[in-house]
Amino acid sequence: KVIINSGTANACTGIEGIENAKKAIGIASKYLKVNPDNILISSTGRIGKHLPLDKIEKGLEICSRNLSSEGGHHAARAILTIDKHPKEFAVKINLKNKDILIGGIAKGSVMVEPDMATTLVFLATNAKISRSVLDILLFECIDKTFNCVSTDGCQSTNDMVIIIANGESNVDIFEDDKTIYEQFKSCLLFVLESLAKMIVEDGEGATKVVEINVIGARDGGEARQVGKRVANSILFKTAMYGEDLNWGRIASAAGSTESNIDSSKVDIFLADIPVMKDGMAVNYDEEQAGRLLKERYINFTINLNTGSGSARILTNDISNEYIKINALYKKQR
Q1: Mean per-residue pLDDT for 92-108?
Q2: Active-site residue 118, yes or no?
Q3: pLDDT by residue (tens digit) across 106-121?
Q4: Domains with residue ranges and CATH for the chain
Q5: Segment 265-279, tens digit of pLDDT
Q6: How confident is the model at residue 28 (pLDDT cuts 50, 70, 90)?
Q7: What is the DSSP string of 250-274?
């Protein structure tokens, strides 16, 4: 079982915060009639505030009387803080003539850096799978999804991804059965990709979702480093809000990493339009580029032309609304 509270992060609260978390688990154990060792707790909200145990007990008492297989949507809404929209996604796949379900809900819209921070994700599946195999799958899929998104380049204290498998389908997932294993992995990856994209789409004040594909790097680590540096560039993000290509901001951000990038080999594309080749400006159709920049979803490719490493980073723009929301954060709480 998992209990989640929003509004209070229970971070930077010392020993008392740890003890309060244990008390909340004890309360959940009482109402859900589950061993405390089988209960996980997750919190999100303002840092430095203690858990309101009275409210938590009241809420758990109500929840325990209203548990339902249809309650996922209510849970997705309940965990929101400053998010504008609930985030939920599920898939069904037929394996060995039985339906395997993978579903999840997520919370997050800002401070999602460097790996997930302020992102909470809760997944469930009816597959029969060992903890060790599930750990491997989850870490591999998280690394390609939630660890490759950034909204405002800031980080925070509370993040978590939990996946629970109840085995009710009685369909075994194990590495030796490559076909079944890869099909399950593909579905899990798709669910996580979808939830991660929803978080970027829901970024505070965001008007654009930008995909940055880095290819031709020495390895995946270098590709990710370059992609993240561009994604977190305030100049790049504001240019996207202003629908201004200004590809020089991409080139300068990419070149500011610790990697030894050969600028004379770098190509940059807006969708399939080359805007920089071999480290130099090229003529391109500015009207066509302008139309692409007006769209909600924008795609860039950066080719370092030095290897086979690649990475895909998702980010968004930064608007006046982002400044307004965060400048008035205290008044909105």
Answers
A1: 93
A2: yes
A3: 988 777 776 666 788 9
A4: 1-67 (3.60.70.12), 72-206 (3.60.70.12), 209-317 (3.10.20.340)
A5: 999 999 999 999 999
A6: very high
A7: HHHHHTTSSS---GGG-EEEETTEE
What long-range pairs does 35-39 form, CB within 8 A, spacing at least 24?
38/1, 39/1, 39/2, 39/3
223, 261 contact by CB (below 8 A): no
Which residue in the list 13, 44, 81, 118 is annotated as catalytic? 118
DSSP state string for 279-313: TEE----HHHHHHHHTSSEEEEEEE--SSSEEEEE
CB environment 89-127: b (16+ within 10 A), e (fewer): bbbebebeeeebebbbbbbbbbbbbeebbbbbbbbbbbb
In the structure encoding, which two tokens stand for residue 305, read together? 């032309």
d(CA 40, CA 173): 24
Share of the chain above pLDDT 70, in %: 97
Residue 111 structure tokens: 């401070």
pLDDT one-digit tens code per residue, 230-263: 999 999 999 999 999 999 999 999 999 988 899 9
* DSSP code string of 92-115: EEEETTEEEEEEEEEE-SS---SS
pTM of the model: 0.89
